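Troubleshooting: if your tokenizer reports a length mismatch, compare your output against this known-good record of 354 residues.
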Amino acid sequence: MFDRKLNMDSIFHEKQEGSLCAQHCLNNLLQGEYFTPVDLSSIAHQLDEEERMRMAEGGMASEEYRTFLQQPSGNMDDSGFFSIQVISNALRVWGLELILFNSREYQSLMINPINEKAFICNYKEHWFTIRKLGQQWFNLNSLLTGPELISDTYLALFLAQLQLEGYSIFVIRGNLPECEAEQILGIMRVHQQQRPKLIGEDEAQTSAGRSAAQSQADMTFAVEDEVVDEDEELKKALALSRQDIDVEDEEADLRRAIQLSMQGAVMSNKSSESEMGNMKLASQAAGSSTGGQRAGQNEALTAEELRKRRQAYFDRQQQQAQSNIPQQPDPKSSGGSGSVNPGSEEDQQQKPSQ
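Known-good structure output:
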């Protein structure tokens, strides 16, 4: 009894190296190391020479011929890519032929894909093989870590999907060389528990995981920085708000102090001093709520301004009183009816009441 894992291991599968997918495609199709890059390069040079000779028939001095010589080869390049003509000539050595799968000629035959032997698929510069071994189909793409088992029911869907993705599909006609996998899988079918991954997929997932973790970390740091910035902006806004409140409080205190001073002009000196003391207490209370040394300085300036305003008020009251009373010699006056004796504050407060 054959081991199923050994059955899968019997399948020849070249993995991708550089851009040599055409070589991997041919060797996976033939199930052996039949072609090397040197072999395919030789075929490509032979095709280039044949094309050059056909162009020379139109005259080696012609503009078309000189342009052809300046152009790079269309059958190969330095990366390891080989054209469909190179692959077709390489398979012709084994008596194999390529037929375009979606051509009218082939579609008119109405052949079920599971009755074929193999397919070669090409998209842009990538080639890979789908081959039947025993009674089962396998995707031998060199970009996979190993052969991928394809069921008969899925084969037609897989080919249709490749066509929708832009792949060119070629049917292999002719007798493929015998191989070990064909003999083993012809006796016993295999079951694949886990589908192969793309080469580098694990590393890509690890890198993607690291990138996602790094992005998450960067996002976390960005959020933290944003929170810190918001905190700083909030602190600045609060500081500006406190300054506005301080200014408003100082203006309110000043208006209140002026009002109290105006009321004190018609009261006794004792009552005025009492209210001044209350005003100072109120100013001190307001200063303690708005904080610090700056409030004390504002209070001192406010008191000085109040004294000036009170003096101006008393002067106006004295002038009004003098204008209403007939002028009499005043021993305390300096002689001018428009001026007052700069005596004590108590005498100045009592004159309006005469």
